[in-house]
Amino acid sequence: KRTLGMEAFAPVGPTAVTTGTFDGVHAGHRTILRRLQEAAAALGGASVVVTFDPHPRKIVHPEFPLQLLTTLEERAELLVEVGLDHLVIQPFTPEFAAWSSLDFVRRGLVQHLDVRRLIIGYDHHFGRNREGTFAHLQEFGPVYGFEVEEIPPHEVDAVRVSSTKIRAELLAGAVDRAAVWLTRPYFCTGTVESGARIGRGLGFPTANLGEIDPDKLLPKDGVYAVWVERLAPHFRGERLAAVANLGVRPTVDGSSRKLEAHVLEPGIADLYGQALRVHFVARLRDELRFPDTEALKAQIAQDVEAARAALRAARA
């Protein structure tokens, strides 16, 4: 169940709570979420995740551009898929940003959420100017009747997982490495819009993904093997093999940055106007400028075969 704002939450019995932005809902986050569910079961109560919208940095440091791994809707969907009882989306306003760490605990967690067990990640901070720490929570817990547990950093292949490291891998084009830490291929969501139909003229029609959230991080420009998922309810979960180009298409355009995907499976109807999700599986090559469209067509044919091979390997 999704609730907008902690003050609107109506607890029925004790709760186990965790808070954070959870950008990417990566392997480290999932460790926290599993422990949250265990704690809720031990209490005989509900598991509650509190996340924030917009991202706190957009309010606290608006001068720095965001590079989000997940939009709010993507993040909410991933969190719900984990199997949590409640997702509380707390509006991160300037007024809320001014709450002290004590305000956050007393007004938010205790008064509105009836927290009995608080699960937090390693080095978690909260409240005005990020003043609240694990030490503060250890002091507040006995006073307000809840226990607090700090989860140590989760490691994958002996590398500490963080959203920052995942962003670095994506910006380098290493979508396969990012997928290990995310526990899934990285994806972005948008709506298919009309293009110049250049791909159709080359014999490789593409779906041009528009309306991608401007705060969403896109991987390094290049050609990728991807899965394309149609988000209409009767198509959800079905993934279509595709090859995608992310960049400025220097041979035919050379100006605007776009993400376009050529679906490899036959019989797919017109995708214009449909909401799609593109899952990045493997990076095949850099964008290149070709001397003419015939050379470009020959390369795309090679890209199609390389994408098929990469997607077969991913399924194996």
Write structural notes for this entry.
With 316 residues, the protein is an alpha/beta fold. It has ten helices and 14 strands. Strands 1-4-3-2-5-6 form a six-stranded parallel sheet, with helices on both faces. It has a six-stranded antiparallel β-barrel with strand order 9-10-13-12-11-14. It has a two-stranded antiparallel ribbon with strand order 7-8. Helix 5 crosses helix 6 and helix 7 packs antiparallel against helix 8. The chain is elongated, with a radius of gyration of 22 Å. 37% of the residues are buried.
**Any low-confidence stretches, pLDDT <50, length ≥5?**
none
Strand order of the largest sheet: 1-4-3-2-5-6
Helical content band:
25-40%
Please identify the oligomeric state.
single chain
The major pleated sheet works out as: 6 strands, parallel
Mean pLDDT: 90
Number of helices: 10
What layout of secondary structure does this protein have?
Layout (H helix, E strand, L loop, with lengths): L1 E3 L10 E5 L7 H17 L2 E8 L2 H5 L11 H10 L4 E6 L2 H4 L3 H12 L2 E7 L12 H11 L2 E5 L3 E2 L2 E2 L2 H9 L3 H8 L3 E8 L4 H5 L4 E4 L11 E9 L8 E9 L10 E6 L11 E11 L7 H23 L1
Parallel strand pairs: 1-4, 2-3, 2-5, 3-4, 5-6
Antiparallel strand pairs: 7-8, 9-10, 9-14, 10-13, 11-12, 11-14, 12-13
Concise account of the structure shown:
The protein is an alpha/beta fold. It has helices at residues 27-43, 56-60, 72-81, 94-97, 101-112, 134-144, 163-171, 175-182, 198-202, 293-315, and strands at 2-4, 15-19, 46-53, 86-91, 115-121, 147-151, 155-156, 159-160, 186-193, 207-210, 222-230, 239-247, 258-263, 275-285.
